């Protein structure tokens, strides 16, 4: 009888061990919980961690995807440093400084869409160029074929990308007509080159017009004709952002900056960029206003403390204000106590993580 009882006891112990729940062993150095709770307003939704999240130590990386993002504004790239002109060497210095400080290029459209695919611990930055000056994209003919001049903005960006592919390659060029980039015979080549190499073309009105001096019809004509002319060179291309010449428009006409039509041409802009002078809010922030997207001047002259190096220094001294990526474009990771600022109505496809 004792032997039978002993056998039963052994069997029960084996069954208990086989069905018992063993706590998962957390990976060494991982600073997140095995299960991420559903975000507010998403109760009941399955919100599992991705493998990428599991490998990120939030306490070390300190992601803050509600931090601010610099959208840099450049004009001419030329021989003489001036208020609205940057020399090729100084532009290279800007890129190298951004790279060394942990910034990585993304396109404006990716920023607006919240498609921020930047390595964990790094910060997105956007480049924009106004006016379509020659120094932004000059052609050099090599063996009978055109290619970007290595001292033009496009040439410098292409070369920097070859040396630092992890920096990214992106910029938006806001052009007007009839002569974008100032070399008539190469207009088509240049616009197609930009699109084929991941750059974007933006609307800067058709004639560099001061929209504050135009009525509704005049505004729509300027924006519609710019789109038409760009699509004549790049058929079907979707121009969907506007940089305001002179940075102004009458408030009552502002809705026509986003949507309008002229002579059968319908245009839609996802964002309107201003002239300056501070970083933009995160696109995930409820305070982000697509009608008034600020930019930082890519200059060191007459910037009144609001140029590129002023803001780089500011973020060095105030890292909590800077956008820091968690490395996963499908999540919005923010510090505790800030998630009430997330625009949940717009980014319903994103998982929210609070740590």
Automatic annotation (TrEMBL):
Segments of this protein annotated with the region Disordered: 37-56
Domain NodB homology: 124-253
UniProt subcellular location: Secreted
GO CC entries: extracellular region
One example of a Gene Ontology biological process annotation: carbohydrate metabolic process
Pfam families according to UniProt: Polysacc_deac_1
Keywords per UniProt: Signal
Comp. bias regions, Polar residues: 47-56
Single GO MF descriptor: hydrolase activity, acting on carbon-nitrogen (but not peptide) bonds
Protein name: Polysaccharide deacetylase family protein
Species of provenance: Calorimonas adulescens
């Amino acid at each position: 009888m004792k032997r039978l009882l002993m056998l039963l006891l052994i069997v029960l112990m084996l069954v208990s061990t086989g069905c018992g729940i063993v706590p998962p062993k957390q990976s060494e150095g991982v600073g997140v919980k095995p299960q991420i709770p559903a975000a507010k307003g998403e109760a009941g939704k399955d919100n599992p961690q991705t493998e990428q999240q599991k490998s990120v130590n939030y306490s070390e990386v300190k992601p803050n995807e509600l931090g601010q993002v610099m959208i840099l504004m450049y004009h001419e790239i030329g021989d003489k440093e001036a208020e609205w002109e940057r020399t090729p060497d100084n532009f290279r210095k800007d890129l190298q400084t951004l790279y060394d400080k942990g910034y990585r290029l993304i396109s404006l459209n990716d920023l607006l869409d919240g498609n921020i695919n930047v390595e964990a611990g790094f910060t997105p930055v956007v480049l924009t160029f106004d006016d379509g000056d020659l120094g932004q994209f000059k052609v050099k003919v090599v063996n009978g074929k055109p290619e970007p001049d290595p001292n033009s903005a496009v040439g410098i960006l292409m070369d920097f990308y070859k040396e630092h592919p992890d920096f990214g390659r992106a910029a938006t060029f806001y052009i007007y007509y009839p002569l974008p980039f100032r070399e008539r015979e190469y207009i088509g080549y240049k616009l197609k080159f930009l699109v084929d190499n991941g750059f974007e073309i933006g609307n800067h009105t058709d004639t560099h017009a001061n929209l504050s001096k135009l009525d509704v019809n005049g505004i729509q004509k300027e924006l519609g004709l710019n789109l038409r002319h760009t699509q004549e060179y790049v058929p079907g291309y979707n121009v969907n952002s506007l940089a305001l010449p002179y940075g102004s428009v009458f408030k009552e006409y502002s809705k026509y900056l986003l949507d309008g039509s002229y002579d059968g041409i319908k245009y839609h802009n996802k964002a309107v960029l201003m002239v300056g002078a501070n970083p933009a809010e995160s696109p995930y922030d409820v305070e982000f206003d697509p009608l008034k997207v600020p930019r930082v001047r890519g200059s060191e002259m007459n910037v009144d403390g609001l140029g590129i190096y002023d803001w780089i220094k500011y973020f060095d001294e105030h890292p909590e204000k800077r956008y820091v990526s968690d490395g996963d474009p499908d999540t919005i990771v923010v510090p505790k106590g800030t998630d009430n600022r997330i625009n949940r109505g717009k980014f319903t496809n994103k998982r929210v993580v609070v740590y």
